[in-house]
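ok so for the tutorial part 2 we go from a plain amino acid sequence to predicted structure tokens. step 1 is just haveing the sequence, like this:
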Amino acid sequence: MERRELLRSVGGVAALTLFAGCSSVTGPGPEATAEEYIQALSEDDEETYESLLHPEVSFLPIGVGGEGLTVNTVEQRDVEAYLSQSGEPTDSEIDTFEQDIQEEIDEIGADGYALVYYDIEYEQWRDVTGYSTDGYLMLVQSDGEWLIYA
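step 2 — the prediction. this is what the tokens look like for a chain of 150 residues:
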């Protein structure tokens, strides 16, 4: 799997769990940033969610709206947990993923990254009652600030 394709598989509107070369953090951590981003998307708060995106973000978010958002889980997880979504990863797969991510992090000049898992529910989302979804966001640490990257 190519690096860009791999990174796109992490995100969408849906992140990161492993710290890689972290420097001092000046703002909220990756979990708090991810939750703020999810809230902003839910409220169609374009100004806020765009302020939480890394300048080289690999996707363009679209506010999702919805009523009655419940955030069940927002937690940082490791690469193995992320890769386990599609079966038990081998050590080689974990190493390759981590190397590819580190190359991408180095390329964009970030200080570290985190994979953040989320599980959310809406009372009403578009024409669906009782909608729930989960996924991952990849955040990068840049100048002491956590930003959404994929």
